[in-house]
Structure formats: C-alpha cells, structure tokens
Design brief:
The complex is a heterodimer of chains A (about 675) and B (about 1000).
Chain A lengths: L3 E4 L2 E3 L14 E5 L2 E5 L7 H11 L5 E5 L5 H4 L2 H6 L5 E4 L1 H7 L8 E3 L6 E3 L5 E6 L9 E5 L4 E5 L17 H12 L3 H12 L5 E4 L9 H9 L12 H6 L1 H16 L2 H8 L4 E3 L6 E4 L3 H16 L1 H18 L5 H4 L1 H9 L7 H17 L14 H18 L5 E8 L2 H8 L1 H18 L4 E5 L4 E7 L3 H17 L9 E7 L10 H21 L5 E2 L11 E5 L3 H13 L3 E5 L2 H10 L4 E4 L8 H9 L2 H4 L3 E5 L4 H10 L3 E4 L4 H12 L7
Parallel strand pairs in A: 4-5, 5-6, 6-7, 11-12, 18-19, 20-21, 20-22, 22-23, 23-24
Antiparallel strand pairs in A: 1-2, 2-3, 3-4, 8-9, 9-10, 10-11, 13-14, 15-17, 15-18, 16-17
Helix pairs in contact in A: 6-7, 9-11, 9-12, 10-11, 11-12, 15-16, 16-20, 17-18, 18-19, 22-23
Chain B lengths: L1 H34 L11 H10 L8 H7 L2 H10 L5 H14 L2 H11 L5 H14 L5 H8 L4 H12 L3 H9 L6 H13 L3 H12 L1 H12 L13 E4 L4 E4 L3 E4 L16 H19 L1 H4 L2 H4 L4 H13 L5 H5 L9 H14 L3 H11 L3 H11 L3 H6 L7 H12 L4 H9 L3 H17 L1 H10 L2 H7 L17 H25 L9 H47 L2 H4 L8 E7 L6 H9 L6 E8 L5 H9 L2 E3 L12 E6 L6 E6 L3 H12 L4 E5 L3 E3 L3 H6 L8 E11 L4 E3 L2 E4 L6 H23 L10 E5 H6 L17 H15 L4 E13 L5 H21 L10 H34 L5 H26 L8 H13 L4 H15 L21
Parallel strand pairs in B: 4-5, 4-9, 5-8, 11-15
Antiparallel strand pairs in B: 1-2, 2-3, 6-7, 7-8, 9-14, 10-15, 11-14, 12-13
Helix pairs in contact in B: 1-2, 1-40, 4-5, 5-7, 5-29, 6-7, 7-9, 8-9, 9-11, 11-14, 12-14, 13-14, 14-17, 17-19, 19-21, 20-21, 20-23, 21-23, 23-25, 25-26, 29-35, 29-39, 29-40, 35-40, 35-41, 38-39, 38-42, 39-42, 40-41
Classes of the chains: A alpha/beta (about 675), B alpha/beta (about 1000).
C-alpha cells in the first residue's frame, strides 16, 4: 500500500498489514520541510514504512519521532531507522523513556514532562501532548495538532481490525468498544480523559490501531466516556469499589445484625474480628484485612460463634447485597448445607422450639438431597422433590409431637392447553416464569414454592394462619387476573388444604402426604368446575345459603315496585340505597341475585361489581342492572366486566322476572 | 310584609309534606292495584303517580285496562289537548308529556297534528319524545317530516328518538325515497349506527362512493349561506326544475330569487361541512360494523385520504390473519400513520398472538423510522416484554424496550420499576434505562422525577427535587390610575353636589354650619342610595319569583327517561382544580364520581400542590401515569403527567406545575373530551342530581347556552360521608351562618333575577357549566400564560363577561342560564381573617374585570350587559361601598353633632333593615321551593341572622370591600387561600 494524505501535510505511511487483527498506523507530519514521524511501527513493517517515508521526505529532514508509549508494535522499528542514518529526537513521556531505551535506541530524548507538554516546530507550529495516564500505560499520552485539529490518539480509539479499512464506518463503534473493553482498565480511568477531550475542537482522530475517525468524532468520544470497560477486572468487583468498598457492605450487615439481635450477642458474634466501627451508626471505619477476606471472615466468625441459624436469618439480606453490589457470596454460604437449608427454610421467629424442628428438617432435606433437582424454567424445586419433602415434613411434625399448622395451596393456570395452542408451547414457560415472579413478590416468612408438572405451582405455608393464607390466595388471584405482564389476560384457579383437616398420626407419613395433596388437588378441580378464576377453600358445599334477592336503587318507588314484583313470585327481598350497602349486605350473606340501578350514591354499580369480584365468596353473584342510563359505553363496560343483564328504565316487569328466574334457576326459596 | 312571607313559608312546608304524603299514598294504592288486582283505587287523580311509575316500568304489558281507562278518561284528555294550544311554552310542553303518557290513539293524533306547526324547538322536542315513547310506527313519517328544515339542535336529538324505533324505522327506510335531503341522510346514518342490515350497508357504501356528486348536488339544493336565495329560505317549498322554485308566498320564482321575507334555513349554514360530517360518520359505521367492505383494494388504495384512512382502520376489525400483513406496507406513510397505529394496536389487543409477529418484524426491520413506529404499537405490552428479559435470549426484547423508552413512553417502565421486587429484572431494566437516559433529555427528566431515589442512583441520575415556584404578579400601573380617578371622583362628588345645591350659601356661613348642612344632606343621599339599591334588589326578587316558578315546573315535568336518552343532554367533563387539598380530595373525587348524569368524565387537575394531594389520589384510586397524547388548544403551565386507572374510565388526573386556578381549568379543558365542561372547586361537594338539573336547562332553550350556573351553599354544618352529604344543617359557626343567609340571598334574589332578564354576569367558580368550544374560542380563562397574558383573581366572572362580549360581537343569540335547584355545597371561611381575605379577593377581582372590560360599560352595542349588568356592578358594587362607608361616617358625625333627625333615621331604618330582611326571607322562601334543606329550627336561626346581619356584619363587609379597594394600590402580597378543614372534622 502506498501513502495516503489524510490532511494538509499529514500522511498515513503504514503497511496495511493485519497481524491477528491488529494493524499499525504510523503517521508523518511534514511542516515546511520538517518531518515528524509518529509511532513508526514494528520491525515487521519497517521496510514498507521506510520506503513510504522516503517517498515523501529525505531521511535527514525527519527531526522528531513521537512514541506515545513503549509497546513494540510502535517502537521496535526505531533502531532500524537509526541504522539507516536518521538522526532525530525521540519525543516521549519520562516513564516511557525508561523502557524505550531497552530497544537499543540511541537518539536523544525530548521528554514532554520537561517541556510543558508541547513542542514548537521551526515554522512556529505547535503540537500539544495530553497525558492519558493508565490508558493503558501510566505514562501514556496523545498528541494534538493545533493547526490541523487532528488528535493522534495512540491506543485510544483503536480497534481490532478484521477487514480493516483506513477510514472508519458505521460498524466501527462496536469494534472500538470491544478493543477498549479488553485493553482499558475501567470507566473511572477513561471517563476523565474523555471529558477532557470533549473540550477540544477535534476534526479527526488518528489512532495507532484501527481506522481513522473523520465523522461523528464527538459521538465516538462520548461512547468511550460511558463505556464500562475493564473486562478482566470483573472478578474484583467494580461495583463494590465504586460504592464504598467492602467497608460499606460490611456496615450494612452490622446494622442488620444489631437491629435483630440483642446487643451483647452481636458483640459476642463479632469478637475476634479486627474491625473498628462506630457504635451508633455501625459504620465500619477501619479493618485489618483485604476487603474480600473481611467479607468472608465476618460470616465465618458469625457462624462459628452463633451457629447456622444466624446465617440462615441473614441469608436473604446477604443475597440482596450480593446482587446489588456485585460482591461474591460469602464462602460459608456456598457450602452445600447452607444452600439447601436457606433455600427451604426461612425462619424468622425466635421460637427455639421451631428452630430445633428446623434443624431436624434440614437433616431430612439433606436426606432427600440426592433426588433434589430444580425446575430449569422457574428455578423452583420440582415435583419429585416436593413429594418427598412433604412426607418428610409431616413425619417430622408427627415425631416431634409438635403443634405446627401448615397449609398447602395449589395454583394452576386456567385453560393452559388453549394458551399453548394459541401462543405456542414456549409461552407456557414464560407465563410460569412471570407467575413465579409475581408470587414471590407476595410471599412472606415461611413459604416455600414448588413447581408441579403442568402449569401448576405449590405453595407450602408453615405456621401461617388460615386467614393469612386465604388472603394471600385472594390477592394472588386478583393480581394475576388484572396483570398486564402476561401476553394475554390469564386467570388461575386455586385449591387450598389445611393440616388440621387431617389426622397426621393415623397413617404413615407418606400416605398422609398423599391425602394432604389429594385434598388440595380435589379442591382445585372444584374451583375449576365452578367456573375458573376461583379459589376453593373447602370440599363441602357453601354453608352461606342464599335465599333472598337484593334490590338497590336510590329511588324508593322503584324499590317498592320491585319488592312487590318479587313478593308476588314468593321471593324474599332486601333493599340497599347506596353502593356501600350492597357490598356490606353481600359480605354478610350472599344473595341469590342483585338487581341494581347503575347510578348509586357512594359507589356506582360498576364499582360495586368490581369490589364484589375481589372476593371469591361474592364473585359469582348474578348481577342485573336496571337504569335510565343505557348507552353504548355503559353497556359495553358493564358486559365486559361480566354483568349478566342490562335493562333500561322503563322496563317490562315480565322481562325482568323472566331473566331473574332463568338466572336463579332451581334455587328458589319460599318466603 | 315580612310576616306574611314567613307565614307563606310555613304553609308551604305543611302543604308540601301533605302533598308528599298524598303522592305516596296514591303510589301505594296504585302499586297494590297493579300487583294485587283485588283492590280498587280510591284516588282518582293519580296521574302524577301514574306518570312517575310509567317512567320506571312499562305499564302496557300489565294489560290492566281498568287502570288505564281510569287515567285515560276524556276529562284529562280534553284538558291537555286544550293546553297544547296554550301560549305558555311550558304548558304546551307539559301537555305533550301527559298526552304522551296517556298513549291513546287520540292523543297520538293530536300530537301529530301540532308537532309540525310548533315553532318552539324545546316544545317540539317534548312532542317528538312523547310520540316516540308511544312506539307507534305510524308516527315515523311525521317525525321525519318535522326534521326537514329544523335546527341542528332538534335534529340531533330526534334522530336518536327515531333510531329507537329499530325494525319499524328500518321498514320505513326501505320504503322511503326521500333521501336527497341532508336531514334524512343524517338520520339514516345515525340510524345505521344502532341498526344493522344489508340495505343500510349498501346505502352507506353508496354514500361514500357518490360523495362528490352528492356534495355538489346538496350545495345546489341548499345554496350557500353567504348568498341569499330561494333555496336556503325557510319558506321554500319545492323545485320544479333547475331554474324554477316554488315559494310559500310568491309561488313560482326563479332559482336566485329572494324577497324581504327571506329567512335563512338552519340546515343551509355550513352545508358542505355538515355533509362531510355525514360521510365521516358513515365511514365510521362501515369501519366498525361492515369492515369487510372497506378493506377491498378500491378503498385501501383510494386517492381520497379520508376513505383510505378509514379502510386501514377497518382492517383492525376484520378477524383475519392477513390484516397485519396488509397493514405493514402502509406504516411508512405519514398521512396514514394514525390509522395504521390504531389498527395495529387494536389487532394486538384482540389477538395477542400477533404480538410475536410484530416483534419479529421489528427484529428484521432496518428502517429506523419503521422500527420506531412498530415499537410504539408494542408499547402497550411493554410489561410483557420486561418480563421476558429473564429469558436466555432476549436481545430483541431489549431493543424493543429500548426503542419504546427512546420514544419517551416511560410511564409503565418507571411504574414497573417502582413496584417490582425482583432484583434480576431490576438490573436488566436499569441497564437498558441507563443507555436511554444518556441519549434523551426527556427520558432523563421523567426518570429523575418519577423513579424512586434508590433506582435513580442506580441509573446514575440525581433525583429531581420538587420545586414550587412562587408566581409574581405584575403591578398594573394603568389600573392604579383608573382606581385613583374613580376614588377622587367619588370623594369629590358629594362636595360638588353640595356646592351646586347651596350655591347661594357658599360664602355666607361658617364652616361648622356648612358641615352641618353637608352632613344632613349626605345622610339623605345615603338613604336614597339605600332605597335605590334595595329597590333594585326588590325588582330582581320579583323576577326571581316568576323565574323560580317556571323553572320549578319545568324541572318537575321533565321525564327522567327522556333526560337519559342518547344525545338529549350534552356530555360533560367535570374539571376540578386542586391545590393542596389533601384533607378533602378523596371525599370530593368520590362524590364527583357518583353523580347522576348520562355521560360525563371527571378531570382532576393537581395544580402543583406541595402537599400529598397527588399521592393520595394515586394510592386511593390506584392510578398509573400514562403517556397520553392530546391536543393542547390553550396555553398553560407545563403538564407533568396524566394519571389514569383503566378500571375507572371516568377519572383522569392531570398533574401540572403551579399556575393558579384559572390556569388549571385551562389545562383541564385541554385534556377534556366532552362537549361541555363543568368547573368545580375541589373543596366543594355536588348533590347527586345537581349536574342533571343544571344541564337539563339546555333542552329548554332553543338558543345556544354557552354558560350555565348553579347554586352554592355553605357546607360547613353538613355531615359528609364518602363524598355524600348525609345530613344537611346550617353551620354552627356564627360567621358562617351570616354567610349562609348572604349566599342564599345572592343566589336566589340576585342571580336568579339577573338570569331571568338574561343579564347574568357571574357564574360561581364553584359550580358552572360551559360549552367547551366557545370557551376555547375566546381563549379560555384569563391567565398569565394564556392568550391575554393577564391574571385575575375573579376568573369566573371574567369568563362570563368575556363570553357575553364575544357572543355579542359575533351577533349570535344566546342565553346564560342559572339553575336555582342545582346545588353545590362549598366550604366558607369560619374566621374573620380568612373571610376578610376572601372579600378582598372578590372585590379585587370585580374591579379588575370592570377595568379590563371597561369598553362594555354603558355601551349599547353590548345590549343589556352593557347597559344594565355592567353599570350595576360599577355603580353599586364598586362605587357603592365607598359611598356607604362615607355615609356611615356622616351618620356618626351627625350623631356626634346631635343633629340626626327622625325622618332620616326612619328612612334609613326602613330602607336598609326592613327591606333587607324582606329580601332575605323571600330568598329563603325561594330556596325552599324545590327541596327542603333545613329544619324549622334552623330556618328560625337563619331568620334571626338575617335581622342581626343589618346591625354590624353588613357594615363590616362594606368596610372590607373598601379595604379591598385600597389594598389594590399597595403591593400585592399574594392571595393566600383559606386553610381547609377536612370533612371528617364536621361529622356529628
């Protein structure tokens, strides 16, 4: 390749050869007959570069050679130039000069540090040198030509150059990023330099590797400014360094310890650790280890002094710190026992009795550990594990003769086969994944999730009251039915069984577990049969027998009329005059049917219907609206909510009674 | 006189209770009669009960001829047939309603006979409604006939009545050939919205296919409104051919003939615009109901952009896998963009499986513009894509999310992050957000404002600090000049008058003598002034009495079913500006969400509150910030966000930087989507039927009603539960009690009277209904950032004055109405300090308006407003208080000089005390006309207040008003709003 003039009197004099994706760009500046050679290149390129240079300028006119740092790819050809009879000064940083000597260079040095980081040529033209420390050598610098506004950037803005082109194109940014991710130490180091460069008016960037950047110079600088580089520093945790080091995370842990345990116990736990911290804010201000050792040591100490339970209790918090600050999980947590234990048990009470049970159960968990596998999609324990876990857990409770109350909840996505058909099989996975994320947001204390075969999840609650469990179920059901996080609207059916419904000691633990699971799955079937998007709490029919019709209107006349109508048909009626009353009455005792005006005080019929939807108990009460207001919008939103009929005032009594009787069907009760 | 009135109040009370009782009895026996046919009806005059019941249920099908006959006797029938010809419009209307309920053949015939001759549109509408309620197909041709040449106001409503006939109207449509009139075309298209048939479909297709021919034919037929000609005259009968027309008075005439009788036909105004609207509507029906027709290539590739756009929207309604493929090529065209985006969004809403197809297209697409557009289609599903980020290969999802965020659609993502608990997802989303934030300033702002502190840090952004900017009001030098001039003239007037009257004495007596005569003179002036002003009040009162009777009757005769019929009442956006209302906001919004009204929405505007108003709304109503796009026609302070909850479609919250009440109302108007808007104070509670009562006035006017005002009472004594007034009481606080009687007087005697002579100038900011189009036309409320770059504290009155000014300038006939029974309950100040501040503010507002619109005062061009309304305010409200205070000073001097004489004392006493009390009591009587608000004991207390008021409170208020006047010279130190009390404080 021959030379290329990149600007007035500035030439690219390279060979264009790539060696393993790295090419070298030597440049020559000719200023009124005076020559400056920049980064002349390696021994391998020498012949070509040499002849290129001679084409442009006699050898004796080259007065300076700029070496931006000491790498062989740009320095090693200098002795060969000297051998050819050239006599020039080497312009470089004092740090680089120490090393460059080892190439056997004999020419005198022009140390930029001693010359105010600039050089004045014969014509008065000035070149300015900008230090770029640690990019990627402590003494690295770049050259900025005040006249042509070209930045000779050395390794910065370089790139690996497969399919090398002299001038950059659209794809260059990505190539450049990769190069820097590998060679530049970190964003903290590169950012200030780039900020400095942004202040300069730069027409062109001529790097030593890669391509010359002529367009969008500022964009390129900004990209590097924001680049998270230092690929090989990953392991040393840049995040934690940025936010205050291990000192910070350890302080967090101390704070947490003091907030849950008694003062003296914590002090005991920390005994022997060489750290000093503020006794009020618990902020660590000095320690006598490497950061990572402090982090590991802290937990080892705690474990040694206070036992596993403390570790278990801290585990969720530590996990959060690990993810948020990108620190390593403390060694002690990585040991298998703790892993299993902490995943399964989340004890949060001081109850020593319970702690004991937990330890025993942990033993069991280790027993079944061999069979243990996790569902790859949801990250939950799978079916097989669940079965053996459940019977072990029951066995343990029986053995200990302990009053521990558990509940078993199965959650199953409705119409999963339809979903698979419409959206493809892989959508089932993503629905389940989202479902688990949603559920995890609401789980608390002693709850363990398992994934069953098909689109079903099991929640196992230990020592949670029936009310808490039921409320959790209701919340999950509602949340899912309105969530926009799924590809389409989905619903779930839920069946719950409670341990006090079983005689735990009657049979073998395995059989009891089977029965336990059987009840829950029976109930889920009931829930599905009853119309999906429901929760089934018991296997028997509803004890809240309904026997009346609820009439709601703000207008007394209409209530009178309807009362008369249904009295004639031998139905009992109750009246409500506003929205709140309807909800109250329904909570007490479920009516056969609600007939309501659309516009009611306090809550309109739609709001009422929506709040009835929130609870499985009142969810499926038939609802008829009779209103003077019947327009397209109202009717549309009413039916989309699930309201059964929408009649307009004046209505035909026969029509209303007909509809009502059809809805109520055989449930008629004599008054 | 006072006593007589008071007695009448008592008598009415008893009578009312009795009436109620009787009506209840009648209803009871009627019900028993219907449902247990073995009883007989004792009351014969049960027609009112019958009417009420028939509003509720269809009585026909009960098939009890006996009952029917009992009410359908000849006597009742004849009485009302006669009334059909009454000169009073409301009697004719009432007759129409009752005859409609009787629903006999004869009644139908009578109505059909008069409807075509009826000139008054409201009455005509009642007749049409009565006929349509009978549901007899034979009235259809007559109803259609009544549309021809009628006002748009009438046509819009009757079209809906006719559409209710359904099948029967369809029969008529099939046979009719009278389709060349635009009235009929509109009718058919309106009908097609509710009824579907092949023939209707063909008609609609024909209409759009022959759009251009029809347009020129219609222009030919109706002429253009700027040129007088036979074709656009109300007396035009028919045309025999192109050249010849037939006129009602002149027989056969030439096509361009017109005579002195020429009267422009309402349909001829903007004929081509109306026709284009018909075509648009026809297209809309086709899109939604018959989309398969429109997706034919001839429409999809039509040269006509309107049709092409409709065809594209129609694709969304075709249940077809290929719709998406057909849509994609159009996405590059800017002129079709809106329709394409609409269609795609709709498709993925209905067929979520198509989301993946669009996502695939997004991946393959290289054109960045198309990529942007596809991303905006997918933006509604962003939460789904976020959830997919934890999958192994989610590069495409990442780019989609990134693109959506770059478009500035950040609300859902930010909301997601704030609520999310999964750290894995958080890291993924943050890493995308980090990149976008660097590129887009808008996103950066959004994130820094709405994202939680911790997450902001994670993105590398500083959390924005909430700033509340203080508005600075400019000092108006001109205004001060005017004020100074008025003040000096008022102060100089009495001495000048004095020197003119006693010219001969001027230099002959001592100063003390002069002073004595002057004081006596002045006391006379004051007495005369007092008599004049009370006289004005009396006249207003008299008119109020007539007006209240008329309104009362009209309200009670309106069938509720009619009010709820489609298009009968205008759709309304309620706009409630809220500034630091955290104590009451939830109650108020609740109350406003449960009004009895056919079609309305509620827009709460948070005017940069520094308390938790917005947070409370968001938590209580579970609102989400959305990226709403709308057309901002009025300039306002910056809008920060729109909050909605999909399951409460009626409610919207607009969050904006602080700019005052007027600015907030303007922002609300920009966002609102209905025909009228109703300005409400966020600290007041509406009665459930208040809006219905107020808006129902629009069907009593054939003129335009650009503004309607309601009634305001102090809420201080009432018990409010969940925004619903459960018990009404007068306030416990004395200061508020005085205000109570003051409000009643101002509204019942004042505004009602002014409204009856169509000179109403004030509509309270607490409760007023306005036609949006007009308000936008005049540039909205007066604000610093608006059209006139001026602020006023009396924005409510200013708006009405400006409407009047504009309507007069445009030479449009209009009426500004006031509803005496549409009630809004608002908080009034309970301590002297805030009351004084309020009065200062009111007075300042009044003066600002009068100065701003000074050209209207005594200007005959502005009719009654210019000659009566504005001068009244200028003379009695601005100058009056100054004179009054001056007068009191003189009375004191007179007493001090020991020269008050009996005559003056009596005059003063009678004029101010007795007349004042008379007016107060009469107002009480009027206020009790429709609904009984207070208990007898409370009425007595109010009466005592009305009397005591004359000895002190009234004078103090005058003093404050003068104080307000003087304050305007000085530096304006902000007009702080009164401190709110929560409603819950008032329970019990």
């Amino acid at each position: 390749m021959s030379t290329v003039q990149i600007s007035d009197g500035i030439y690219w004099v390279g060979s264009g050869d790539e060696k393993a994706g790295i090419n070298c760009n030597p440049y020559l500046i000719i200023d009124s007959g005076e020559g400056i050679l920049l980064d002349p290149g390696s021994v391998l390129d020498f012949e070509l570069v040499y002849s290129n240079v001679l084409k442009l300028i006699p050898l004796d006119r080259i007065h300076y050679v700029i070496l931006h740092h000491q790498d062989p790819d740009l320095c090693s050809s200098v002795p060969l130039f000297e051998k050819m009879g050239a006599s020039f000064q080497i312009i470089t940083h004092w740090r680089a000069s120490l090393l460059i000597k080892f190439y056997g260079i004999t020419s005198p040095f022009y140390i930029i540090n001693e010359n105010e980081f600039k050089i004045k040529l014969e014509s008065g033209r000035e070149l300015v040198f900008i230090a770029t420390p640690y990019l990627h050598f402590p003494g690295a610098f770049v050259t900025y030509d005040l006249q042509s506004k070209i930045l000779f950037s050395s390794d910065l803005f370089g790139a690996f150059s497969y399919n090398w082109k002299l001038f950059s194109d659209d794809t260059y940014i990505e190539k450049m990023k990769m190069f820097h991710e590998h060679y530049m130490p970190s964003n903290e180091v590169i950012r200030p330099v780039m900020e400095k460069l942004l202040l300069l008016e730069i027409a062109m960037i001529a790097p030593q590797h890669g391509s010359i950047i002529r367009a969008d110079v500022r964009t390129h600088i900004k990209v590097l400014r924001d680049l998270e580089c230092g690929e090989y520093l990953r392991d040393t945790k840049k995040e934690v360094a940025k936010s205050g080091g291990y000192k910070l995370v350890v302080s967090f842990v101390l704070k947490r310890l003091y907030s849950i345990f008694p003062l003296n116990e914590v002090e005991e736990a920390l005994e022997g650790l060489e750290i000093s911290y503020d006794k009020n804010s618990y902020e660590v201000f000095d320690y006598n280890y490497r950061g990572i050792d402090l982090w590991n040591g802290l937990f080892e100490n705690v474990s040694k002094k206070m036992g596993l339970n403390w570790l278990v209790l801290l585990e969720p918090f530590v996990n959060k710190l690990v993810q948020e600050y990108d620190v390593l999980l403390p060694n002690i947590y990585q040991s298998k026992i703790i892993d299993v234990q902490s995943e399964v048990w989340n004890l949060n009470s001081e109850n020593m009795e319970l702690k004991k049970i937990n330890e025993k159960l942990n033993q069991n968990i280790q027993d079944v550990h061999e069979q243990m596998t996790k569902c790859p999609i949801t990250g939950l324990y799978n079916d097989t594990f669940f079965r053996s876990y459940l019977s072990k857990s029951i066995e343990e409770i029986v053995l200990d003769n302990n009053e521990i109350y558990t509940s078993l909840m199965i959650i199953e996505v409705d119409d999963i086969s339809q979903i698979k058909y419409t959206f493809g099989v892989e959508e089932e996975d993503s629905i389940l994944r989202t479902l688990v994320i949603l559920m995890k947001e609401h789980t608390f204390g002693n709850t363990i999730l398992f994934r069953l075969q098909g689109a079903a999840i099991v929640c196992y609650f230990i020592n949670e009251t029936k009310e808490t469990v039921n409320a959790f179920a209701e919340r999950i059901r509602n949340e899912i039915s309105i969530s926009k996080k799924f590809i389409d609207k989905i619903t779930v059916s839920i069946g719950i069984a409670y341990s006090n419904e079983l005689d735990l000691k009657a049979e073998s633990a395995e059989n009891v577990a089977k029965k336990y699971y059987g009840i829950a799955s029976h109930r889920i079937n009931l829930a599905k049969k009853a119309g999906k998007n429901r929760i089934c709490f018991s296997s028997e029919l509803d004890e809240k027998q309904e026997d009346y019709i609820l009439i709601a209107d703000n207008d007394e006349t209409n209530i009178d009329v309807l009362k008369n109508v249904f009295k004639n048909l031998k139905y009992r009626t109750k009246a409500a005059f506003n929205g709140d009353e309807i909800v109250e009455i329904c909570r007490e005792k479920r009516p056969l049917l609600i007939i309501s005006e659309m516009m009611l005080p306090k809550q309109d019929a739609m709001q009422v219907y929506r709040s009835l939807q929130m609870s499985t108990d009142t969810k499926n009460i038939p609802f008829i609206i009779i209103s003077s207001l019947k327009n397209e919008d109202a009717v549309k939103s009413a039916y989309s909510l699930g309201i059964n009929y929408f009649l307009k005032k004046p209505y035909m009594v026969a029509e209303l009674t007909g509809i009502s009787q059809n809805i109520i069907g055989g449930n008629k009760v004599e008054s | 006189m006072d006593i007589i009135l008071f007695c009448s109040l008592l008598i009415r009370r008893i009578k009312n209770t009795n009436d109620d009782h009787f009506e209840k009895l009648k209803m009871g026996s009627l019900l028993r009669r219907i449902f247990h046919s073995n009883e007989t009806i004792k009351n014969v005059n049960g027609e009112k009960a019958y009417e009420k019941l028939s509003d509720l249920i269809v009585l026909e099908e009960l098939g009890d001829n006996e009952i029917k006959n009992q009410f359908k006797q000849d006597k009742v029938f004849r009485k009302y047939v006669k009334r059909l010809k009454s000169v009073h419009t409301y009697r004719r209307a009432e007759a129409a309603i009752i005859l409609g309920k009787l629903s006999t053949k004869e009644a139908k015939q009578e109505l059909e006979r008069v409807i075509l001759q009826e000139k008054d549109y409201p009455v005509k509408l009642y007749m049409a409604n009565a006929l349509s309620d009978m549901k007899d197909a034979s009235s259809i041709p007559i109803l259609v006939q009544s549309l021809i040449g009628a006002h748009r106001w009438y046509r819009d409503k009757v079209n809906m009545l006719l559409a209710d006939y359904g099948e029967e109207f369809h029969e008529y449509f099939l046979q009719s050939h009278n389709r060349n009139r635009i009235e009929v075309q509109e009718l058919i298209v309106d009908f097609a919205m509710t009824y579907h048939s092949n023939e209707l479909k063909e008609y609609l297709v024909w209409l759009i296919d022959h759009k251009d021919q029809e347009l020129s034919r219609i222009n030919e037929l109706y002429g253009t409104s700027d040129k007088k000609m036979c074709a656009n005259c109300q007396y035009y009968l028919e045309s025999t051919n192109q050249e010849q027309r037939v006129c009602k008075y002149n027989g056969k005439v030439k096509a361009d003939f017109y005579c002195r009788r020429h009267k422009l036909l309402p349909v001829s105004i903007y004929t081509s615009i109306s026709f284009n609207k018909v075509v648009l509507k026809a297209l809309e029906v086709l899109v939604k109901t018959y989309p398969f027709i429109l997706v034919r290539p001839q429409y999809l590739n039509s040269q006509d952009l309107v049709i092409k756009n409709a065809a594209i929207r129609a694709l969304a309604f075709c249940n077809d896998d290929k719709s998406l493929d057909k849509l994609l090529p159009f996405i590059k065209e800017d002129t079709l963009l809106e329709s394409v985006l609409f269609a795609m969004t709709k498709i993925i809403q209905e067929y979520p499986e198509q989301i993946k197809i669009i996502a695939n297209h997004f991946r393959k697409e290289t054109d960045p513009r198309v990529k942007q557009r596809l991303a905006s289609v997918l933006s509604g599903k962003i939460e789904y894509f976020i959830m997919s980020l934890v999958m192994k290969d989610s590069t495409n999802e990442r780019t989609i999310i990134r693109q959506i965020l770059t478009l500035g659609l950040t609300s859902e993502t930010i909301d997601f992050l704030n609520k999310n608990k999964s750290i894995e997802l958080e890291n993924e989303v943050i890493s995308i957000l980090k990149e976008v934030v660097l590129e887009s300033e808008v996103v950066r702002r959004d994130v820094s404002v709405y994202l939680e502190d911790r997450l902001c840090k994670k993105c590398g952004i500083q959390k924005a600090v909430k700033t509340t900017n203080q508005r600075v009001e400019k000092k108006d030098r001109y205004m001060i000049g005017v004020l100074f001039f008025i003040l000096t003239s008022v102060l100089l007037l009495p001495p000048v008058l004095y020197s003119l009257r006693h010219y001969e004495l001027l230099f002959s007596i001592s100063f003390l003598e002069h002073l004595k005569i002057f004081v006596v003179d002045f006391n006379y002036y004051l007495a005369y002034y007092s008599i004049t002003i009370n006289g004005v009040y009396l006249i207003l009162l008299l008119m109020s009495f007539f007006q209240v009777n008329r309104q009362y009757k009209k309200w009670h005769m309106k069938p509720k079913t009619m009010l709820f019929k489609n298009r009968m009442l205008p759709s309304v956006s309620i706009i409630a500006p809220a500034f630091n209302e955290e104590l009451t906001i939830i109650e108020n919004v609740n109350s406003l969400l449960n009004l009895e009204y056919p079609d309305y929405e509620l827009v709460v505007v948070n005017d940069g509150s520094s308390d938790s108003t917005l947070d409370k709304l968001i938590t209580y109503f579970d609102l989400k910030r959305v990226d709403a796009v709308y057309d901002a026609k009025l300039k306002t302070k910056q809008i920060l966000g729109i909050y909605l909850n999909a399951s409460i479609p009626k409610l919207a919250v607009v969050d904006k930087t602080n700019g005052g009440k007027a600015d907030s109302l303007n922002a609300g108007i920009n966002y609102s989507r209905k025909e009228y808007f109703c300005g409400i104070d966020a600290d007041s509670v509406l009665e459930r039927d208040a809006l219905l009562k107020l808006a129902s006035l629009t069907i009593d006017q054939s003129k335009e009603t650009p503004a309607l005002g309601g009634n305001v009472y102090p809420i201080n004594g009432c018990t409010v539960e969940k925004g619903y007034i459960s018990e009404k009481h007068i306030p416990k606080n004395n200061l508020a009690r005085f205000q109570n009687i003051e409000y009643i007087r101002a509204f019942m005697a004042g505004r009602l009277g002014w409204a009856s002579i169509n000179s109403l100038l004030i509509i309270s900011g607490a409760f007023g209904l306005f036609r949006k189009e007009r308000i936008i036309g005049i540039g909205g409320y007066l604000t610093q950032s608006g059209k006139y770059e001026k602020d006023t504290v009396g924005e409510d009155m200013e708006l009405v004055v400006r409407i009047r000014r504009l309507m007069r300038d445009l030479k449009l006939s209009f009426k500004i109405c006031y509803a005496f029974n549409a009630n809004c309950w608002t908080q009034v100040p309970e301590d002297r300090k805030s009351l004084r501040k309020q009065r200062y503010r009111w007075h300042r507002g009044l003066i600002e308006i009068l100065v701003f619109h000074r050209k209207m005062i005594f200007n005959p061009r502005y009719g009654r407003t210019g000659m009566i309304g504005m001068p009244y305010f200028f003379l009695f409200e601005v100058i009056g208080p100054i004179l009054e205070v001056e007068g009191y000073l003189m009375v004191i001097i007179a007493i001090w000089l020991g020269m008050i004489n009996q005559q003056i004392a009596l005059l003063l006493f009678i004029s101010s005390i007795l007349l004042g009390t008379l007016i107060s009591i009469s107002s009480l009587v009027i206020t009790e006309k429709d609904i009984v608000h207070f208990r007898m004991r409370e009425i007595f207390i109010l009466l005592v207040c009305a009397i005591v008021e004359n000895f002190g409170p009234r004078q103090v208020i005058s003093l404050w008003r003068v104080g307000g006047y003087f304050k305007m010279f000085g530096k304006n130190n902000g007009w702080g709003k009164p401190i709110r009390k929560g409603f819950s404080n008032q329970k019990g």
